[in-house]
Amino acid sequence: MSAVSSLVPARFLTIIAHLVIVITIFWSRENNVKACLPLDFTPEQYENEDRKLVVALAVTLGLFAIELVGFFSGVSMFNCSQGLLSTGVHVSATVALLFFLFEQWDCDIYWWILVICSVLPAFVEVVLFIAVFGLKKKPL
Question: Contact at 8 Å (CB) between 90 and 14?
Answer without folding.
Answer: yes
